Amino acid sequence: MVQLGMSTRQPPVWQILVINGPNLNLLGTRETSVYGAVTLADIELSCQQQAQQLGLEVAFFQSNHEGALVDRIQQVQQQSVDLIVINPAAYTHTSVALRDALLAVARPVIEVHLSNVYRREPFRHHSFIRDIAVGQITGFGPDVYRLALHAAVHYLQNSLN
Ligand code: CA2
């Protein structure tokens, strides 16, 4: 029954872009002792399921090429993307270009890593993204993507207040 006088306004549907960097297309097929047996397609499916529950629209993009990642980030300028979740993979530790692209589009960024980069080789301890991100989630395997979607909702809700 429709109750007259009650607001029918829906909560905002936020648009999240999830970006994955080089070699993450190999997830679940190689180095399963480090990165686990779950594939990137599995991760996308579970994120899409969770997005429905959280009232989010989630788009995924993966590339092995730094320039393609920069191009995809720049496209955000013409789109209504509210927040970017990114696992820049090896480019985390090397890419000023990705950092500059993220700064240029001025969207909140959550950096994620499957492995706990701080328990690994020292060169993985540095990130060109971490200080421009609203937060970093590292070391919980594929769950980091779903944790990041939860964090995104909290962040965006608080930014409305
Ligand atoms: O832990 C993460 O998520 C990393 O971003 C993964 C990167 C690594 O360079 C970062 O330091 C931490 C490597 C991704 C490589 O992914 C593969 C997946 C399966 C098989 C081989 C590589």
Brief characterization of the structure:
The protein has helices spanning 32-35, 40-54, 66-75, 96-105, 143-160, and strands at residues 14-20, 56-62, 83-87, 109-113, 135-138. The protein is α/β, with parallel strands linked by helices and 161 residues long. α4 links the parallel β3 (83-87) and β4.
Helix content: 25-40%
Radius of gyration: 17 Å
Oligomer: single chain
The total beta strand count reads 5
Strand content: 15-25%
Largest sheet: 5 strands, parallel
Structural class: alpha/beta
**What is the straight-line distance between the termini?**
32 Å
Strand order of the largest sheet: 2-1-3-4-5
Overall morphology: globular
Question: What's the topology here?
Answer:
Blueprint: E1 14-20, H1 32-35, H2 40-54, E2 56-62, H3 66-75, E3 83-87, H4 96-105, E4 109-113, E5 135-138, H5 143-160
Parallel strand pairs: 1-2, 1-3, 3-4, 4-5
Residues 23-24, 26-27, 30-31, 35, 87, 89-90, 92, 113-115, 117, 124 line the site of ligand CA2.
Structure characterization notes:
The chain is of the alpha/beta class and 161 residues long. It is built from five helices and five strands. Helix 2 runs parallel beside helix 5 (143-160). The longest helix is centred in the C-terminal third of the chain and has 18 residues, at 143-160. The radius of gyration is 17 Å and the shape is globular. The structure holds ligand CA2. Ligand CA2 binds next to loops.
